[in-house]
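Hi all, long-time lurker, first post. I run a small reading group and we've been trying to get comfortable going from sequence to structure in the token notation. Rather than ask abstract questions, I figured I'd post a concrete chain and ask someone more experienced to write out its structure so we can walk through it together at our next meeting. Sequence below, copied exactly:
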Amino acid sequence: MQSRKVRGRKNSNPVKNIISVRAKLWLEINGNPFFGEGRVQLLKGIDKYGSINQAAKAADIPYRRAWSYLHAMEKRLGIKMLNTRIGGANGGGTELSKEAREFLCKFEYLSSNLERFIEKEFSGFFDYDALC
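-- Answer (accepted) --
Happy to help. Here is the structure in token form:
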């Protein structure tokens, strides 16, 4: 018995191979954005470096603006975002509060679900001839 190679259908639409879809997620209160990718990067930087200054540099934002973002998040969310230690023999430092970690985790979960949904819907985008 001779085996045959079975090939899938060739993609007749070359554009399908080069187009990708992207979405941005941010949170708003009363129509005013207050949390998105920039804040995520700031919080992750604080978690990584233990320093608002280092996190601000890594996120390419001024230190004052980073503080402004952090205070605004605390005020709008009603949660403490940071735990700080004053310098001394062991040095100071900053870390995310438990509530900030939970908030960041939930946002990232929502963001990854959005990405999966968009990718799933887009995978059949060029097959939807009946939509339009």
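A couple of things your group might point at:
DSSP finds four helices and four strands in the chain.
The two ends are 47 Å apart (CA to CA).
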